[in-house]
Each structure stands twice: as structure tokens, then as C-alpha cells.
User: Fold these one by one.
Assistant:
Number 1:
Amino acid sequence: MILGQVADRRCAVENQCDPAVRSEGDHVKMDLIKEVFLRVPAEWRGLGVIGGSGLVFRDGYASFNALARFEVPIMEASDIMGCMCGSILRGVATPLECPLFGHACNTANPIGPGMVSREGACFIWYSYP
Ligand code: SF4
């Protein structure tokens, strides 16, 4: 699609999935996912608990559950003092509104997840002012 745009000397946002994805979804894959996983409430950083947003293995697939097979400590997703990542994730604040942005929190010394990841809003905002 990109080569077609170059050849046509035009630029546009085009969805490559359109020819391959049906609006009703892929029932074979959807049925497999329903067979293996159970939807449960899950906690999301900055968003809180969202019902049905998490997946756990159903009983028949428990042998694949690393949490059951190995002793993995579950740590609380505590908020980082002063970090506004939750508000930024929800789109109610920009990184510039965070008092730590560019001072205590920067790409060399990231404090919150938004600055840790190269895809994070804070990382991008800081890197491309
Ligand atoms: S990642 Fe850093 S700059 Fe972004 S909201 Fe958190 S503390 Fe603030």
C-alpha cells in the first residue's frame, strides 16, 4: 500500500487490515480464545479495574498458567508519587502538566512508565519537543 502511494505520488492514512478482516470477526479464532481463556476484571495502571478486560486460563488449560506453576511474586501496582501517567493515559492531562516532567523525570532518569517506554507519551513529548 505504501509503495502504491509512492507510485501514485500521494500520501494517505490507509488501513491495511481492510481486505483481511471481517467486521464480524474470525469465529474460529474467537471460539478458540473463549475455549482457553475466561474474561475477568483486571486492574490497569491509571484506569483502575475494568470488568472483563483481563484473561485467565480456564481450568482445562491450567498447566499453561505460569502463575500457578511457578512462584511469581505479585507486586501491588502502587502509584508513583507525583507521576501523572494515569491522567495522561486517560487524555485528561499532557506530560507538560506533570511537575516531574523534564526535571526529576526524563529519558535518562525515567520515573514513570510513560517515560520508560519509547512508545510512552512522556518519552515522545520529551524527545520531540
Ligand atoms: S512518566 Fe514522568 S513525566 Fe510522565 S507522568 Fe510519570 S513522572 Fe510525569
Number 2:
Amino acid sequence: MNQEQTPLLQAVTDLIETDPAYFKVPGHRLDKGLCPRWTDRVGTGIFAYDVTETPLTDDLHSPEGAIREAQRLLSALYGADQSFFLVNGSTCGNEAMILSAAFEGGRIMIARNAHKSAMMGLILSGAEPVYVMPEVAADWAVQGAVTPEAVRKGFEEYPDCRALFLVSPSYYGICSDLEAIAEICHAHDALLLVDEAHGGHVYFHDGLPMGALEAGADVCVQSMHKVTGALTQSAVLHIRHHGVREAALNRIAQDLQLVQSTSPSYLLMISLDCARYELAANGRQMMEKALRLAEYARERIGRIAGFSCMEGDRTDRTRLVISARGIGLTGYALEEMLLERYAVHTELSDHENVLAIVTYANEIRDMDRLIGACADISEKCGGQQALRAAVERNRYPAFPQIPQQVMTPRKAYFSEMKTIRWQEAAGQIAGQMIAPYPPGIPVVCPGERISQEVWDYIERFRTDGRHIHGAGHDGSLDWVKVILADGV
Ligand SMILES: Cc1ncc(COP(=O)(O)O)c(C=O)c1O
């Protein structure tokens, strides 16, 4: 296919050039009705592209024209059999994958480091999750790959699982051996569903890990907004058939309709069309640049006293996982300093590390700002033995073991609940998920008994004032919803 084309961009441009008298939604009339306080700052050009379904611009939910063409170009680029534009992020893609794969009465295997959107998919679908624990990269205290051995064991115990859902690359860029895992899944007539939210770019350079579709995944979703040039919320879902559970794959278009707006943003969809075009034209050079910038910083930060950068096989080397434990700083403290003193914005932090995402759109001066800030921090905070000892003493506990699942997330979600004090929550069945954010990985899911280990783990985040999804409206976790009728 001719990847030079941008069919959706062209269709909307053609519409604008007809100088239409416009009586459709959206009401701002192709740019004229927007708040001048905003348009005076940013201009109006782009807003003319904020249109809706017309015979020229096609319909995401039943594409026959420009959107269908744009999606076909996307499939061709990634080697998929079918691809879909998503306007509600990988969130809705994960929900649709799970909805299609297993529902009430069915089982699905899920990596325990799955993003909260997987849990939302389980609530929608009613499937029973069985969990597989990822390995922990011990020196960095981050969850990493799911091993083929763990997957094999999972199927031995639960041979009726309809699919395996896992995240690869993880937020920290750690990838699983998807080729081996795909083989195991397919041998059990189960689908491999990959949340590749952080991996839409890996297909374009040999120095990056293998993409999920190349490795044999049946379905994957990619947040194109995270690391390629699409706008926030723009994501895609790809299907590649391997003769496994075709009926489930054929449901996905329908399930996407449950979780996507009927007024999808053309700005988002055009950004996907254009991001695809750029990747097709320049993907290798773009990723070469990102890798070069990341290596430049990794090497220099690694030489700063008290700092280190994560290394490892099967990792996305455009992710910089930085630790300043050697000078007694937690990841949280380092992130705060970088932001407040140097206006260096990193993606997230945990107790040990800070994560910086490097893309082709960064410049050498961004890297120098990051390196310079780390060097300055090292100079100012170095040599403080007491701080170092305190960080070691106060390390966060390991991610807890999987608690007892008393009922499915869906059953729990729709059960009668009561709100109790967090202090009394240990031993109760959770009515809600609780997930430190980012990264948004639930520590406890609805329907699970809150073990003492889980309680202690979350309590540490609570007392340290960390941002938690599942906390009350005021951001505190003083109260929590639990299932009313325990003993079910
Ligand atoms: C692993 C993972 N999956 C899915 C998502 C959701 O992606 P989106 O923000 O595109 O909805 C995120 C968001 O950070 C994520 O980290």
C-alpha cells in the first residue's frame, strides 16, 4: 500500500475547502465559535479539522471510506490483519480485548502488573481472572517480565483460560519473551492479548525489542500518544489471526463500540493517520534518534556519583530508569527536585527510581538539562551518609502476593457495599480497586480479601501521601468501600 497517503487528513481538508455552510455538530463551526482567550494564543487553523461524520469524512463505527483506508494503511505498516483507531486511549482497547476474550463463567489469565484498565475490562466482561506474577528486577524493585514458565504453570493449573493478558513493554520498558509465550497460549487454544500501550514505536528499529504482533500476539493495543506523534488519547488496536478463537476476534469491532464515543474526535483520528505516515516515512530515523539520545544520557548519568541507570536484556532502551539511591535520595525525592528546581518533568517515580521517557522529539539540550540537573543534585546532596541509610531503612515492602479472590470483579462491583474506615479494612472484601497512580497497577481488586500484607503495602503509600486511585474525593484513603455481605 502507498504509505505516502494520509486519507483522513485529505478527506477533512477536502471538506474544509468546500467552504461549507455548517449546520452539524460540533457547534463551534470549524473554528469560529471557540473562546478567543484560547484562540488568540494558539490560532484557529487546527480547529477547522474538528469535524464530525459526513459522507466525506466517514464514520469510525462503520468505516467505509477515509477512516477505513487510514486503518488499512496502519495494518499494512504493522503487519496486522485488521487495525482500529481508538479515541479513548489504550484504556478502551484493553477493555475491548478482555470483553471479547472471556465473559461471565469464563476464565482469563492476567499478569498482576496489568494497568487498571484491565480490571475495568473484567468488570465489564464478568470473566474470572487468574493471575500470573511477573518477575521483579530486584536491584530496581520494579516488576518486569512474565516468564514463559509462569505462563505454562498457569495453564497447567487453569487449562480452561480463554486468553492471557499481559503488559509488554512495561512502563519501565521491560519486555516479556512474547514469542515463547505466544506458542504456549496457542497450544492451549488461548489468545495472547498484549497491552503494548508503551510499545507502538518498537517496530521501527532493530535496537528495540520485538513488537507483540511480530512475536505472535493475537491482539495488541498501543497508545500512539505515548511515544509516537499522535495526540493524547489516540491509540490503536491491531488483530493478527493465528487460527485461534476466531469468534472472539470477530467480536472486537462490536465490543469497541461499547467503550468508544459515538462522536470520536477527528483531531485525534487525524493525528493517528499522520503519526502512521511519519512512522512509515521516517520511523527508523526517529527511533535511531531516540535511542541515541537515551544512550547519551544513560552513559553520562551512570557516571554521576551516586546515580545509576537501569540496564537489562529485553528492555526498551529509550526508557531511562534512574536511581539516586547512592546519594540517599528516593525516586520520589529526585523527581520532586528535578521538577521544582530544574523544571525537568519526568514521567513517574517510585521509592527507588525515576522514569524518563525519551522520544525522537526530544533534543540534545533536553538530555543536557536532565544530566546537568542530576550532576548538580549529586554535588549538593552527595556524601550524606545519614540520608543514604534512611533510604535503605525505609525501602517499600515488596509488591504483595495475590490475595484471595472471593468473587469476580464484576460481581463485587455490583454487590451491596458499605463504607468503612481504612484502619478497619484488613480482612474485608474490597469493593473497589486501589492503585497507586502512576503507574495505575491495582494492588487490590474488587472481590479480593484485603490481606494484612496488602493493607500494609497500601498503608505505606497512604501515610507517605502518595497519589492513589481509589482514594476518596479529597484524595485521602481514610474510608474504603467493602462488600456488605461478607462470607459469600
Ligand atoms: C501499561 C498501560 N496500559 C494502558 C494504559 C492506558 O493507556 P491510555 O492512557 O492510552 O488510555 C496505561 C497508561 O498509562 C499504561 O501504562
